[in-house]
């Protein structure tokens, strides 16, 4: 392991200044992904600026009835927060579906948003990877890709975003707040992750040197009736092969409002707008749910070994929406 | 345990058979027990292995100069400067050394991840940084890393048993059978993935080579290193006190050999530890298999013809055979009976022994095929197996030692609730889950190998056993304490068992489910002799009275028999065909495994094997990237083993299995637990869904694809080792 510098930041402006002073520096949150990548040589920062002790660990209501979650709130604390569980249950479920108890105790909200893909080629510095070494190629397209993207990918990269938390945030229109040397800024999650295109190495729209300070969950009554389901290759402690965050408001058997996002199918948490359009105003039944899934998955471009994900996501959408509808009917 | 006081001397009987916690348990759970990679040494240097990044070719150059100038770097060993090794010999296991361990002897690269250099530095971080900076240039050659059952280079290979056996007219037998099963089964490349990575420290001390290691047999490794480095065996001492799991992987490997080389060159202690990723190419693995089973049976399910062919892979430098077709040589007879183990030499690391080599993948194929036969004949799967119990060894013709498979099935069926099972598939539902049950038989050899033991009556009234046994997590140290206590008729707290040191003399390794049986034999013999000596009434001198036993002669006089342990596995699964998820809700294994020394640790071994069987059925699979020839995502995030959440209500128990002719009566429980477990799960998945899965692991995508194809024989979708 290469030697690196380590500094603990005392306040937000200090953290941003420390990072700006060194182009090879990285912010360190819980370190649950970055430290692994440093061990394998994927990341080789000259300096770590530890932001875990910054005073960004609160979860507070916003004036308009939403929630503001600080960037250093741990995944465990986020999932356990009573207001999160009451108002955005799918978010708590998503966080608890990820990693292990020990990792969730360390991992932070800000770090979760910036975690890197678990594509095995990205993690192996002896292999080409357009995300890690731009222009070197993507072995996954013709190689191992049974858990790679079916939506929004390109020939340059078919890696998926591994976050569970992000899927629920995408469904609930979360906004990411950040701080730079020039002052604060914010990005809706929909704009936070960049399309893959031919620059898979550029993952977010954060300005250079920006420090994520938190997320804002806008008020969303529909979110109170939400759930997250994750399918993976063992019962626990594995990344998803497909996941769904869904919320439904049903009145008189008709869907009034729907929120739907997919995980493990794209380079970012995938908000299913086409499916939501089909759902809204339609009868809350299996036929509608299947039509909604099909509308979203019409854009799927699976590779030979991940075609199953189209079936999986269709089945998962129908199953989760059916559960929500049955719950609402009770 | 009963205690009796006779004439002032307390005698104790019957510790064996009672549950005892591990004698070193407190040390282990408090962290006081030191493992090989964490034992301190003065002036210790650290070696880091550099592995090839190509799958086949030659090393053109190793650019050592820049690396030698890096901080702390002491040496770079490679094929151009490393000590020469002797490899033309046969070791303790009766086989030549795997050249994967004989590192740096030539410029050939036979697989990706082959050790091409060792960088030694003052600390491990410096060694690692320099190792990662070392530029090695290769002349690359095209590689072949893909096993198929139809690979043109497959050839019959013997390994630990004859390559082929044949009797009767197979074609005629199949043609005459009213019911025939003819199916292909595959299992993927699987890795041991024990908790503790391989680690060794080598040093020269007063003209003697000392190696502090984590291995499955200290005299085994001592012998190998002595021959490799052309040393007298007495000039080599290998110690291995605590071992965090072995499963067949902890034999002679690159870490010990390269550490000895570096310690010799630098004349100071050198430690080499493998990383988890390195283990995936340096520590051995279970070969993938492509198997074909053909069964022909009468209307009542009695076998008339049996054919089992298994193809596995090995490296281009070493022939290791995963003998999956050996199962039927013990388990099932038929007038026409043929079995064949074949291998293909590929540009891959050498596979090795892994928990129940042969039986684990072989039982998946044949026990799945028997379930298919039961389905076709309309005979209950338990009944089908009982109808096919052989009188004598199907191939050897030898009588069996104790064979209590029927008792396992009867007891297992009763406790599992098998009787009255509805054979229809796809009809039991619990919410989104389809439910099903499955069963399979298990067997594993119960052998013994010559061992020696030293037993000392101490002047303070205690007893010390010294034997170069290995406790790889099985509880061997505790079992030997109990056996010695009973043999000496004293309480176990008066017995101290010292193991894991080659200076204690030759003994069997912890392997082949033969360790405890072999060591117990030697300890019992020594105890008998010591008691005779003590009975003479000679006072015990300050240095104690020591006797040495050697079981070589006693083993040679044992009658030739088919000696095995047996088991009946039962599993209940839940399958969501909409998502492809499979959960094992319940599992029961009933075993006939001889005399059970310590029920607590024996159950732990058996349940551990069954859990691994679940993991094998549903999760474990190392995926080889065809372009590079290396593994995809070789770490414990990419290679999935079962988690706690994957394991439901699981239990193991045993039936009485005494063999009055056997002087020890112990059969070993290290491997039998995994045998048949994957087949029981796969058979239960069929019962739940009506779909046969003949390729492991039964991943969600396979279940989904099979369900999408609407049942039928869609369980086969062509894995990495498609037949």
Automatic annotation (TrEMBL), chain A:
Keyword Lipid biosynthesis: no
A GO MF label: FAD binding
Xref: InterPro entries: CO_DH_flav_C (IPR005107), CO_DH_flav_C_dom_sf (IPR036683), Diverse_Substr_Oxidored (IPR051312), FAD-bd_PCMH (IPR016166), FAD-bd_PCMH-like_sf (IPR036318), FAD-bd_PCMH_sub1 (IPR016167), FAD-bd_PCMH_sub2 (IPR016169), Mopterin_DH_FAD-bd (IPR002346)
Family annotation (Gene3D superfamilies): 3.30.465.10, CO dehydrogenase flavoprotein, C-terminal domain (3.30.390.50), Uridine Diphospho-n-acetylenolpyruvylglucosamine Reductase, domain 2 (3.30.43.10)
UniProt entry keywords in alphabetical sequence: Oxidoreductase
SMART domains for this protein: CO_deh_flav_C
Keyword flag Oxidoreductase: yes
SUPFAM superfamilies documented for this protein: CO dehydrogenase flavoprotein C-terminal domain-like, FAD-binding/transporter-associated domain-like
Pfam families: CO_deh_flav_C, FAD_binding_5
UniProt-recorded name of the protein: Molybdopterin dehydrogenase
Species annotation: Streptomyces parvulus
Lineage of producing organism: Bacteria, Bacillati, Actinomycetota, Actinomycetes, Kitasatosporales
UniProtKB/TrEMBL annotation, chain B:
Superkingdom as given in the UniProt entry: Bacteria
Pfam families hit by this protein: Ald_Xan_dh_C (PF01315), MoCoBD_1 (PF02738), MoCoBD_2 (PF20256)
Database matches in InterPro entries: Ald_Oxase/Xan_DH_a/b, Ald_Oxase/Xan_DH_a/b_sf, Ald_Oxase/xanthine_DH-like, AldOxase/xan_DH_MoCoBD1, AldOxase/xan_DH_MoCoBD2, AldOxase/xan_DH_Mopterin-bd_sf
GO terms, molecular function: iron ion binding; oxidoreductase activity
Positions of the Aldehyde oxidase/xanthine dehydrogenase a/b hammerhead domain: 30-142
Key words, A-Z: Molybdenum, Oxidoreductase
Keyword Transport part of the UniProt annotation: no
UniProt-listed SUPFAM superfamilies: CO dehydrogenase molybdoprotein N-domain-like (SSF54665), Molybdenum cofactor-binding domain (SSF56003)
Name this polypeptide is given: Oxidoreductase
Organism: Streptomyces parvulus
UniProt lineage: Bacteria, Bacillati, Actinomycetota, Actinomycetes, Kitasatosporales
């Amino acid at each position: 392991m290469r030697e690196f510098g380590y500094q603990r930041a005392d306040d937000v402006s200090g953290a941003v200044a420390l990072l700006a002073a060194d182009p090879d520096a990285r912010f360190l949150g819980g370190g649950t992904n970055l430290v692994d990548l440093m061990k394998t040589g994927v990341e080789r920062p000259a300096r770590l600026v530890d932001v875990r002790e910054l005073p960004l660990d609160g979860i507070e209501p916003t004036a308009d009835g939403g929630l503001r979650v600080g960037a250093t709130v741990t995944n465990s604390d986020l999932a356990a927060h009573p207001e999160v569980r009451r108002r955005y249950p799918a978010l708590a479920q998503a966080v608890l579906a990820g990693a292990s108890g020990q990792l969730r105790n360390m991992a932070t909200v800000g770090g979760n948003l910036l975690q890197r893909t678990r594509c095995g080629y990205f993690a192996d510095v002896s292999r080409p990877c357009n995300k890690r070494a731009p222009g070197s190629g993507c072995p996954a397209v013709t190689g191992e890709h049974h858990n790679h993207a079916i939506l929004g990918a390109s020939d340059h990269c078919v890696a998926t975003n591994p976050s569970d938390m992000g899927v629920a945030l995408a469904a609930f229109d979360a906004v990411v707040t950040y701080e730079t040397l020039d002052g604060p800024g914010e990005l809706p999650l929909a704009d936070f992750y960049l399309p893959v295109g031919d620059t898979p190495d550029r993952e977010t729209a954060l300005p250079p040197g920006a420090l994520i300070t938190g997320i804002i969950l806008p008020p969303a009554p529909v979110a109170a009736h939400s759930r997250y389901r994750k399918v993976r290759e063992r019962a626990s402690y594995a990344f998803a092969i497909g996941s769904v965050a869904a919320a439904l408001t049903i009145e008189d058997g008709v869907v009034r409002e729907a929120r739907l996002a997919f995980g493990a199918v794209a380079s970012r948490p995938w908000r299913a707008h086409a499916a939501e359009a089909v759902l809204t105003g339609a009868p809350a039944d299996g036929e509608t749910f299947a039509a909604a899934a099909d509308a979203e998955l019409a854009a799927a471009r699976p590779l030979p070994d991940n075609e199953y994900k189209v079936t999986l996501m269709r089945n998962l959408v129908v199953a989760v929406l059916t559960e929500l509808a049955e719950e609402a009917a009770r | 345990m009963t205690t009796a006081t006779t004439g002032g001397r307390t005698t104790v009987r019957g510790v064996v058979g009672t549950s005892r916690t591990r004698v070193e348990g407190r040390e282990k759970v408090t962290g006081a027990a030191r493992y090989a990679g964490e034992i301190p040494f003065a002036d210790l240097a650290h070696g880091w292995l550099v592995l090839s990044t190509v799958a086949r070719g030659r090393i053109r150059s190793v650019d050592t100069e820049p690396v030698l100038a890096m901080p702390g770097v002491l040496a770079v060993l490679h094929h151009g400067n490393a000590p020469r090794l002797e490899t033309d010999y046969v070791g303790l296991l009766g086989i030549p050394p795997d050249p994967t361990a004989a590192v740096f002897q030539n410029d050939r690269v036979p697989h990706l991840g082959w050790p091409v250099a060792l960088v030694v530095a003052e600390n491990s971080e410096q060694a690692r940084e320099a190792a990662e900076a070392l530029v090695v240039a290769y002349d690359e050659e095209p590689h072949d890393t893909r096993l198929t059952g139809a690979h043109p280079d497959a050839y019959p290979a013997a390994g630990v048993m004859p390559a082929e056996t044949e009797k009767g007219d197979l074609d005629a037998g199949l043609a005459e059978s009213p019911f025939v099963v003819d199916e292909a089964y595959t299992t993927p490349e699987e890795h041991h993935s024990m908790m503790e990575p391989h680690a060794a420290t080598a040093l020269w001390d007063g003209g003697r080579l000392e190696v502090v290691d984590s291995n499955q047999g200290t005299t085994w490794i001592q012998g190998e290193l002595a021959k490799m480095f052309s040393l007298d065996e007495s000039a080599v001492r290998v110690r291995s006190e605590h071992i965090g799991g072995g499963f067949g992987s902890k034999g002679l490997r690159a870490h010990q050999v390269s550490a000895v080389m570096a310690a010799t060159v630098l004349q100071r202690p050198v430690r080499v530890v493998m990383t988890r990723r390195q283990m995936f190419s340096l520590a051995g693995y279970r070969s993938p298999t492509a198997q074909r089973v053909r069964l022909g049976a009468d209307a009542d399910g009695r076998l008339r013809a049996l054919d089992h062919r298994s193809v596995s892979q090995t490296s281009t430098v070493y022939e290791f055979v995963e003998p999956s077709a050996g199962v039927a040589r013990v388990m099932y007879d038929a007038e026409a009976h043929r079995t064949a183990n074949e291998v293909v030499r590929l540009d891959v690391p050498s596979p090795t022994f892994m928990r129940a080599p042969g039986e684990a993948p072989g039982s998946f194929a044949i026990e799945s095929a028997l379930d298919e036969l039961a389905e076709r004949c309309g005979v209950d799967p338990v009944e089908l197996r009982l109808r096919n119990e052989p009188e004598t060894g199907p191939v050897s013709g030898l009588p069996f030692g104790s064979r209590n498979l029927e008792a396992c099935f009867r007891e297992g069926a009763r406790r599992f609730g098998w009787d009255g099972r509805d054979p229809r598939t796809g009809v039991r539902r619990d919410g989104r889950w389809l439910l099903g049950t499955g069963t399979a038989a298990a067997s594993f050899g119960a052998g013994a190998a010559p061992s020696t033991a030293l037993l000392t009556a101490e002047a303070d009234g205690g007893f010390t056993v010294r034997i170069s046994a290995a406790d790889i997590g099985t509880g061997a140290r505790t079992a030997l304490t109990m056996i010695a206590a009973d043999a000496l008729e004293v309480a176990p707290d008066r017995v101290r068992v010292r193991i894991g040191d080659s200076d204690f003399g030759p003994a069997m390794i912890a392997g082949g489910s033969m360790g405890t049986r072999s060591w117990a034999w030697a300890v019992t013999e020594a105890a008998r002799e010591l008691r005779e000596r003590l009975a003479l009434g000679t006072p015990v001198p300050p240095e104690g009275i020591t006797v040495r036993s050697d079981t070589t002669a006693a083993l040679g006089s044992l009658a030739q028999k088919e000696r095995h342990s047996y088991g009946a596995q039962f599993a209940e699964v839940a399958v969501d065909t909409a998502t492809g998820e499979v959960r094992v809700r319940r599992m029961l294994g009933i075993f006939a495994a001889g005399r059970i020394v310590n029920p607590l640790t024996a159950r732990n071994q058996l349940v551990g094997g069954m859990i691994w069987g679940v993991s094998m059925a549903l999760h474990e699979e190392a995926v080889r990237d065809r372009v590079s020839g290396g593994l995809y995502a070789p770490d414990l995030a990419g290679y999935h083993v079962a988690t706690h959440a994957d394991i439901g209500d699981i239990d193991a128990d045993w039936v009485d299995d005494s063999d009055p002719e056997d002087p020890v009566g112990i059969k070993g429980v290290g491997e039998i637990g995994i045998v048949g477990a994957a087949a029981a799960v796969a058979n239960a998945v069929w019962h739940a869904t009506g779909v046969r899965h003949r390729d492991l692991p039964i991943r969600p995508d396979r279940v989904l694809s099979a369900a999408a194809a609407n049942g039928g024989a869609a369980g086969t979708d062509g894995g990495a080792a498609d037949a």
